[in-house]
Each structure stands twice: as structure tokens, then as C-alpha cells.
Amino acid sequence: MPRTTTSPSGDGHTATDQRPGARAWQSVLTTIEGRLLTGELAPGDHLPPERTLAAELAVGRSSVREALRVLEALGLIRTATGSGPSAGAIIVAAPRGGMSALLRLQVAAQGFPVHDIVHTRLLLETGIVEELARTTPRPALASCRSLLTAMSDQALPSGDFLALDTRFHVALAEATHNTVVTAMMAGLRESIESYVFAGSAALPDWGRTAARLRCEHQAVIDAIEQGESAKARTRIRDHITGYYAEISAPSAAAATDEGPRPPAPAR
């Protein structure tokens, strides 16, 4: 049976969370996220004590502690032991990258289907590289090149390579100097890393895949620097869908020029 938990509703009352398989700590995250979005909680506010949250949400204190650990890792709260006004869990004042933090919170709370992550990447990143290629003067891509250099190390473990790979894509977004786009890509970073890491274990020849990915990264940079927006768009699309097809079912098809259509996720 689905777990019943409580979360805030728009009218100020509680509503039950009937998501099948919902875990208790996830309901705590969902509740706090809702209070942040509605303004019930704001930077500088204290969260209720663990005991209070546990009783209010009908969960164990261990579930509350788990949720608080996730919130602290996301940079949304800081915790301090002891007594006094600085003790307990406090919403961080003016958190850096608030939009990306909230998006990461949503990911941590319930996750997103891989198909939707890939589709969103295509919508965002094809537009990102197209804009970079059209910008005059061309934006500096020094950070992207630095990451490519780091990825050229043949002895680099696959996990480290893929972490740099994901950072490369965020760096492209940063090069646009569009804070909203950058925040969205940064917020999706955890989801992107999750599926690229998980899929890498099924690759028959990691060395060959890594070499191909390095070449594709370079090709994207070249198209941007040459001002070839259509080519940059095609190359980033093929790069994203190509890897997804490789780690998915053999029948998965890549997106076409008609629009972003990632292959169906493997079952």
C-alpha cells in the first residue's frame, strides 16, 4: 500500500502524500520545500526541533535527521549543536544558487525519470550552444577547455571522467552568463551524474567510449568557436543522445533534427 505522509497544501492545512513507495524522509523534504516556496519559511528562520517535526509529520526522528542531512548537503540549512539562538537547523540566509538548490531538493525528494532528464538536457543545451556560437564576440571557453584537458588523462577512472564531463556541460551554461539557465543546469547536475554513472557500468569498452566522448566535446567547442550554430546544436544533441542510446536498450533511437526526442529508457 502507498505510504501516507503529510505535506502542506495551499490552504494552510496538511495533505496526504500517497506516492507509492514514498519514504518517510522524502515526505519531510517535500514539506520543507513547500514551506520555502510558499514563504512560510524564509532565510534566517529556524526549522522546528526534530521532535516537533517528527510528531507533526508522523515520522520517526531518524527520518527527520536524514532529511536534515540532505538539506544541509544542498546548502539550504546549517545545523549547530548546543543552545541559544544559533543552535538547531537554520535556513541559510541568501543561499547561493537558490533556484538550483530547490531543483536539487526536488531531485533528492523524488527523482526524475531518466527520459525526462535527457529531454530537458536537449531542450536546454541545444539552445545554450546555439547561443554561444551566435554571440559576438565569442564567449571565452577557458574553463571548458581546462576540463577537456583534465579528461584527456588516459588513466582517469570512469567515475572521475564522468564527473568532469557533467561539469563541462554546466560550464557551457555558465558561459552564457544567463543566471537562470546556469541555475537550471546546476540543479540538474545530480540527476545527470546519476544516470551517466549508472549506465557506464554496462558499457562493453569504457576506453573506447571515453575517447569518443572526448572527441565529441572537442567538436562542440570547435563549432561554437567557429560560429557554426547549427553544427554546434547538432553535435551537442548527438553527443547527449548517443551516450544515452549506448547505455540503453539496443533499439533506442537518437533524436532527430525535428526536435529533441530522446530514446525510450531501458526497461
Distance between the termini: 23 Å
| Mean pLDDT over all positions | 78
Number of H- or I-type helical stretches: 10
**Low-confidence regions:** 1-22, 251-267
Q: What is the alpha-carbon Rg in Å?
A: 21 Å
Number of strand elements: 4
Helix content: 55-70%
| Beta-strand residue percentage | 5-15%
Described by the principal axes of the CA atoms, the overall outline is elongated
Strand order of the main beta sheet, please?
A: 1-2
| Secondary-structure element string | EEHHHEEHHHHHHH
Assign the structural class, choosing from mainly alpha, mainly beta, alpha/beta, alpha+beta, or little secondary structure.
Answer: mainly alpha
Largest sheet: 2 strands, antiparallel
Describe the structure.
This protein starts with a strand and ends in a 20-residue tail after the last helix. Strand 1 and strand 2 (14-17) form a beta hairpin. It has a two-stranded antiparallel ribbon with strand order 1-2. Helix 5 runs antiparallel to helix 10 and helix 9 (206-225) runs antiparallel to helix 10 (229-247). The protein is mostly helical and 267 residues long. It has helices at residues 24-38, 50-57, 61-73, 98-110, 114-134, 142-151, 158-175, 179-200, 206-225, 229-247, and strands at 5-8, 14-17, 77-80, 88-91. It is 60% helix and 6% strand.
